[in-house]
Amino acid sequence: MVFNTNNFYNCSPALHTLVAYPVAKAGKICVIVGKDLAPKVKITALVDECRKAISYFAQIFPLASKITLVGHSSGGHECAMLLATDWSSYNPDTASYLKRTLRKVVLVCGVFQLEHLLETEDNKVLQMTTEEARENSPILPQNLKVLAQNVNKWGCEMVMVIAQHDAPTILHWNDAFMEELKSSGVKVTHKFLNGVDHFSVIGDITEESSALAQIISQ
Q1: Does pLDDT of 192 surpass 90?
Q2: Residues 103-131: pLDDT tens digits?
Q3: Beta-carbon count within 10 A of 165 CB
Q4: SS3 sequence, the chain?
Q5: Whole-angstrom distance, CA of residue 170 vs CA of residue 119
Q6: How far apart are CA 23 and CA 31, in angstroms?
Q7: Which of 36-46 are b and which e, b meaning 16 or more Cβ less than 10 Å from the residue's Cβ?
Q8: How many angstroms separate the CA atoms of 99 and 87, rounded?
Q9: pLDDT for 106
Q10: What pLDDT is recorded for position 16?
Q11: Is-contact 67 99, C-beta < 8 A?
Q12: pLDDT tens digit string along 45-78?
């Protein structure tokens, strides 16, 4: 399942559908998640739509033996928040499904701390409050604790992909998130890709030599 990049409000279908190419070529099914965007929905509702998408996926693919979640940029945030969901309370059936099927989560240049967006142009569209930013930041303790419990219980692999020329803020929070994961007992693999930035990291994903394509499709 792919959660695309959109900065929570600016979706680029041409960009994120490229991910389907290496997945399909590897003989697997690629499902790209559609969702509402800001300002139509607030960040909390957007994350909840992603939770509902996972539950719906479980219904239409009940016999799936192995799934991988992939998220780029804000999609990385959404994947992390899915991991930080108390599924036993939210949807016990989905909790059982994820425990059985989720094998890998690939977070590509993710956004894991939202408070730094509050004073940016992005928040003119997102209209987040401080409370909403904290509630939906995977790196903060209340979310990190649940995330670590789920990942360790499910035994899924976590891969963080970092682009060499990404924005300094994203590089900083990716490093911080990775350290917090390790401190919480989560085994995480770090993939540093040279010569690419926040968007070109997926631009060559249809090429045989694409490192990201190999990470996703393995």
Answers
A1: yes
A2: 999 999 999 999 999 999 889 988 999 99
A3: 13
A4: CEECCCCCCCCCHHHHHHHHHHHHHCCCCCCECCCCCCCCCCHHHHHHHHHHHHHHHHHHCCCCCCEEEEEECHHHHHHHHHHCCCHHHHCHHHHHHHHHHEEEEEEECCCCCCHHHCCCCHHHHHCCCHHHHHHCCCCCHHHHHHHHHHHHHHCCEEEEEEECCCCHHHHHHHHHHHHHHHHCCCCEEEEEECCCCCCCCCCCCCCCCCHHHHHHHC
A5: 15
A6: 10
A7: ebbeebbbeeb
A8: 10
A9: 97
A10: 65
A11: no
A12: 999 999 999 999 999 999 999 999 999 999 999 9
pLDDT score for 18: 82
Q: Which residue has the higher pLDDT, 85 or 2?
A: 85
Cα dihedral 34, 39, 45, 49, rounded to 10, equals: 0
Supply 87's token pair.
């599924």
Among 134-143, 157-166, 195-204, whose mean pLDDT is lowest? 195-204
Please state whether the predicted TM-score (pTM) of the whole model is above 0.85. yes
Residue where the block lists tokens 């219904």: 59
- pLDDT, mean of residues 29-44: 84
Distance of alpha carbon 64 from alpha carbon 101, whole angstroms: 7
Kindly state the tokens that stand for 22: 């290496």
Amino acid at 203: G
